[in-house]
TrEMBL record:
It comes from Undibacterium rivi. Pfam families: Fer2 (PF00111). The lineage of its organism: Bacteria, Pseudomonadati, Pseudomonadota, Betaproteobacteria, Burkholderiales. Residues 7-96 form the 2Fe-2S ferredoxin-type domain. Gene3D superfamilies: 3.10.20.30. CDD domains: fer2. SUPFAM superfamilies: 2Fe-2S ferredoxin-like (SSF54292). This is 2Fe-2S iron-sulfur cluster binding domain-containing protein.
Length: 99
């Protein structure tokens, strides 16, 4: 029997917790849990959602998310196209609780 893996998303500095299903981008998962992260294009190009990954690892839905290699190595991610590969902690000071 396949187990559906959910990952936990911790949003700092607020400390809000969200759950992400395997196919949910971090942005979608957070919104489903009532936490709105800054966003605009939702397709990995505008960089409005760009934030720091403090812990954990992500993969991307698209081949070339709009980040430089330097930015990636510094821990910047684009949550609108990022999938959690583990439990993750994000630094998003502008996150808003919507419900
Ligand atoms: S919302 Fe545009 S890159 Fe994420």
């Amino acid at each position: 029997m396949d187990e559906v893996k959910s990952r936990q998303i911790n949003v700092q500095p607020s400390g809000w917790q969200c759950m992400a299903g395997p196919d949910d981008s971090l942005l979608e998962a957070a919104l489903l849990s009532g936490v709105r992260l800054p966003n605009s294009c939702r397709n990995g190009t505008c960089r409005t959602c760009m934030c720091k990954l403090l812990q954990g690892s992500v993969s991307y839905r698209i081949e070339w998310p709009g980040l430089s290699a330097d930015e990636k190595s510094e821990g910047w991610i684009l949550p609108c196209v990022a999938l959690a590969e583990s439990d993750v902690t994000l630094d998003v000071p502008d996150a808003v609780k919507v419900f």
